[in-house]
Amino acid sequence: MNKLIAAQLASADRKASRRYFAFKLPTFLLISALLFTLFLSPSFGQTEVQDLAVVINALTHTDLGITASLSIIDLMEPNENRAVDNEILHFSNQVLQRRRAVGLLVRGHLAYIPTFNLPVPGAASNGDSIFIVNLEDREIVGEIPIQEGATPQQIVFINDEKAYVTCAAAHEVHIVDIPNRNVTKILTGFFNKPTGITLLNGKAYVSNQAWEWDPEAGKTIYYQSSVTVIDTVTDAVLKSIAVPTNASEILNDGESTVIVKTVGNYNDILGHLLLINATTDEITKTVKLGFTPGSAALNSQKQLYMQGSWQNPGLLIYDMVAQDWIRDEDDTIANFSNDADAPIGGGLTFAPDGNLYITQPDWGGGGQDYVRVMDVIDASLLKTYRAGPGASILAFAQVISRREDINNDGVVNILDLVIAARFLGDQGAGIVADVNGDEVVNILDLVLISQAL
């Protein structure tokens, strides 16, 4: 009898031990992976890095059969012709849909591209969405559907879980759940043709163009333009700041100032440059422009480069610190110093190395679309890339091989480690958690994910 009881007790103890070990296994694996990370050589698990320029070719032309597309420039390739993979993806194969791609946000190895279909005569817009492109695999991996007819413009990430999308035609800002790829909330009643958006000090600043096409009058009617301020934690609208006609591009200096560019009515009302204090949300300076400005970009020295008017399309430079012009409309950079035949006009984006990338779209569909690289020290032309039709929007990406991103959400975090642990011990080709590609999921795969956290 005693032997029987002893055997039963021993069996119960073994079962309890197995349950305890099973309960503690995920924690044990996590600790083990972190310890491995500390002790392994820094060279362990090194992956390929790609420095890319991502270009939106925005032209849609039904007569020429052109649809909006994506091009990628390999910035590590010295040969300018071989560096460009042109029109690798199209956002619609149906020319008559006239799908527009109007925004671009790069986050890790994923690009988020707001798109909408222009309405055909007598019909509403349809198919509005944000395409998600995997820049490493160069394929569309998902969509975030947006309310039909909303015409999404720009997207910004508040955190890993939440993003804001400006929707011009709906006069709304949509709040997107990033992991689930759907709209969870709509902010409305505060916006009039919202387009641009920038984040600073826990707040979102949205530019409202405030125009409307009047078909009876056959012209555009402009209303009071504004900048709407949103608390990104509570999603509450804090303030509306009245600004001059047709606020378009909006950006910030990374510290305390929001910069707003207004373009007027393209006729008798000209543009302005406004500086907003991001603490008080008050306009601290208004600079009147004697022209309708083009695109703008801010460098690390807080110098704002801005395209001039179509009559005088060279570059102007405004010093945000001194609040004065370095080069005004009478002293623009009209062309590249070492190539007088290369004009300066189009979209502006500063690269991490300080060089200025200038997109020059050919809206007529003639194929003269370029991305040119300027050394801003002497305004010299460094490189010229041929891009796709209507090349106008550009962003930079450093793509690191992201097999560690198990759920392919654009970031590597603890969730990827938890998911990978479920595959521990599995063997074979193509297992999602087999980070190092040795056809077995083991502690080394967890280590690689931990290194990427």
Walkthrough of the structure:
Helix content is 12%, strand content 42%. The chain is mainly beta and 453 residues long. The strands form nine sheets. Strands 4, 5, 6, 7 and 8 form a five-stranded antiparallel beta sheet that branches. Strands 3-2-1-33 form a four-stranded antiparallel beta sheet, with no helix packed on it. Strands 9-10-11-12 form a four-stranded antiparallel beta sheet, with no helix packed on it. A hairpin with a 4-residue loop joins strand 21 and strand 22.
Keywords:
12% helix; disordered N terminus; Type 1 dockerin domain; 4-stranded antiparallel β-sheet; mainly beta; globular; 453 residues; 5-stranded antiparallel β-sheet
Fraction of residues in β-strands: 35-45%
Number of E strands:
33
**Percent of residues in helical segments?**
10-25%
* Gross CATH architecture of the domain at 409-453: Orthogonal Bundle
**Quick one: biggest sheet?**
5 strands, antiparallel
End-to-end CA span: 56 Å
Q: Can you tell me the residue ranges where pLDDT is under 50 for at least 5 consecutive residues?
A: 1-23
Kindly identify the CATH topology of the domain at 409-453. Answer: Type 1 dockerin domain
- What is the CATH domain class of the domain at 409-453? Mainly Alpha
Name the CATH superfamily classification of the domain at 409-453.
Answer: Dockerin domain
The overall pLDDT, averaged over residues, is 87
Which SSEs are present, and which pair or pack?
Elements lengths: L1 H38 L9 E9 L11 E6 L9 E7 L8 E3 L3 E3 L2 E8 L11 E6 L4 E7 L6 E6 L4 E6 L4 E6 L4 E7 L5 E7 L2 E6 L2 E4 L4 E4 L2 E7 L5 E7 L3 E6 L4 E6 L9 E6 L4 E7 L7 E3 L4 E5 L7 E5 L4 E4 L7 E2 L2 E5 L3 E4 L5 E5 L9 E6 L4 E7 L4 E10 L13 H8 L21 H10 L1
Antiparallel strand pairs: 1-2, 1-33, 2-3, 4-6, 5-6, 6-7, 7-8, 9-10, 10-11, 11-12, 13-14, 14-17, 15-16, 17-18, 19-20, 20-21, 21-22, 23-24, 24-25, 25-26, 27-28, 29-30, 30-31, 31-32
